[in-house]
Design goal:
Number of strands: 15
Helix content: 40-55%
Oligomer: single chain
Largest sheet: 4 strands, parallel
């Protein structure tokens, strides 16, 4: 059995997702048959990414890959926040990029570029597909100003002392995503905020730049910079159009960021996202991992200790709407599980060239069952833990067949395709590391053959101490030698 590539499949109509707005699991129906527009709130590029960022990016990468697998064309847009995100995530404090620029004695755009490319490098290591479009907030100031002008013209925004604020009282639906009633929301305490805003809960669309503020643009109201929320409304509408299909982001963005996005777009007369998906958090000792709490580990620090594919495996082993706990025990379990899958895949691929030309219908039937289990799991709100369980079920049956003797070429091909398509293309787990790519070179393979021949020579001549010493030396550099009925073999 060979799984068809996504380009040859008809779009699957039986995908169900949990829509935060409707607060229930619903069947996904795209606005344009066969095509999906997705928008993901991307990074604020003022420091290195941590595991919490990776959870969001990997979660929505799997959702995107799943839709591709099920035959959809996907336009995937994720933004880069390089202006307007103030330190307290509201309308006060210093811009995060400007604060970092002062700390590192760089221009703000140097900071933005430095950490943007750092983020890209981390996502490449995690095998996250690049966005279809990756717009920056600073590259879309005119679109943000135009949207603000629409809101003012419709009576949903007002200018005050050179800044512009969204009037939440003018939009009764504000709070519908999070379920927070306006009267229940905190009104704030800072007198300066009360004086400039009509209502302390109003949020900034445009901020007048104070003297010395490095990031500033001309606008009809003042020389200043856009608020944090307006960029996502403007850029998602620009690249995906009104009523696009899916908006994603972390659960911590649901309020106020996503509420503000909805209010800005819809109050200006633009139908906004039709489905809202939110991933849950990564926790450390039960507390959310975040830069503000200081309990985070950067991805670069993690990658120095763990294979990035083990990190990805840890993340897909929990549901995107569930909490992922960060601990040494969790990583050890992920490392063991990932090794089990990769060893089975590599053994299938090792045996395939010499496999006999015969059929093994019983094994092929079991493979087909696990493939169906995997796909049904992802149809059900992208349930990656169940999908991973299906891969382990596949591995149990494949290993049993391999241990029993020779397996026919057709069944081995089906097993390989299942691993590569489901575990690789959909879950993104089998990207080769630089070390693995090096192991595949003819030179390394030839040298390892010579080493194994030398060890076998020692064993045949009962020079067991020399054979064991050679094996132990290989183990010290991460190479395992296994003695099988078919002869010795090696793996990292």
């Amino acid at each position: 059995m060979t799984l068809p590539p996504s380009s040859t499949r008809q779009p699957d109509p039986e995908i169900y997702l949990y829509d935060t707005m409707q607060r229930q699991k619903v069947r996904f129906v795209p606005s344009v048959p066969g095509r999906v527009g997705m928008y993901l709130c991307g990074p604020t590029v003022y420091s290195d990414a941590h595991l919490g960022h990776a959870k969001k990016e990997v979660a929505f990468d799997v959702i995107r890959r799943t839709l591709l697998h099920f035959g959809y064309q996907v336009r995937y847009v994720t933004n880069v926040t390089d202006v307007g995100h103030l330190q307290n995530d509201a309308d006060e404090g210093e811009d995060k990029l400007q604060a970092r620029a002062r700390l590192e004695q760089l221009e703000p755009m140097e900071v933005a570029d430095k950490y943007f490319w750092s983020f890209v490098s981390d996502m490449d290591a995690l095998n996250v597909l690049k966005p279809s479009i990756n717009p920056r907030a600073t590259g879309h100031i005119p679109e943000q100003i135009a949207l603000i002008e629409e809101l003012i013209a419709r009576g949903h925004a007002y200018e005050s002392n050179g800044s512009v604020y969204f009037d939440v009282r003018s939009w009764p639906e504000y709070g519908k995503l999070s379920g927070r009633r306006l009267d229940d929301q905190e009104e704030g305490t800072r007198e300066a905020v009360r004086e400039e805003k009509r209502d302390p809960r109003d949020f900034a669309l445009w901020k007048k730049a104070e003297p010395g503020h490095l990031m500033r643009w001309d606008s009809p109201w003042s020389v200043g910079f856009p608020g944090w929320h307006i960029e996502c409304s403007a850029m998602s509408l620009k690249y995906l159009g009104e009523g696009f299909d899916i908006h994603g982001g972390g659960l911590d963005l649901q309020f106020p960021h996503h509420e503000a996005e909805i209010a800005q777009a819809e109050a200006a007369g633009h139908p906004f996202a039709r489905y809202w998906l939110h991933n849950n958090m990564v926790t450390v000792n039960g507390e959310k991992m975040s830069k503000s709490k200081g309990n985070f580990t950067t991805l670069k620090e993690l990658f120095a200790q763990h294979d990035p594919m083990v990190v990805r495996f840890l993340l897909v082993s929990s549901h995107y709407r569930s909490v992922t706990e960060f601990s040494d025990a969790a990583f050890e379990s992920a490392r063991s599980g990932y090794r089990r899958l990769t060893e089975a895949l590599h053994e299938v691929e090792r045996r395939l060239p010499a496999a006999p030309e015969r059929d093994d219908p019983a094994l092929r039937a079991k493979i087909a069952t696990h493939v169906a289990e995997f796909e049904n799991a992802l149809r059900d709100d992208f349930n990656t833990p169940r999908a991973v369980a299906a891969l382990f079920g596949l591995t149990t049956d494949v290993n049993a067949a391999l241990n029993a003797g020779e397996v026919g070429r057709e069944a081995l091909t089906a097993a390989r395709d299942a691993y590569r398509t489901l575990g690789g293309d959909v879950l993104g787990l089998f990207a080769k590391s630089a070390a693995e790519r090096q192991d595949d070179t003819p030179l390394v393979s030839a040298l390892m053959d010579l080493v194994l021949q030398a060890r076998q020579h020692y064993r045949l001549n009962k020079q067991y101490a020399q054979a064991d010493a050679l094996r132990d030396t290989l183990a010290q550099v991460g190479v395992t030698v296994e003695d099988t009925r078919e002869g010795p073999r090696w793996r990292r």
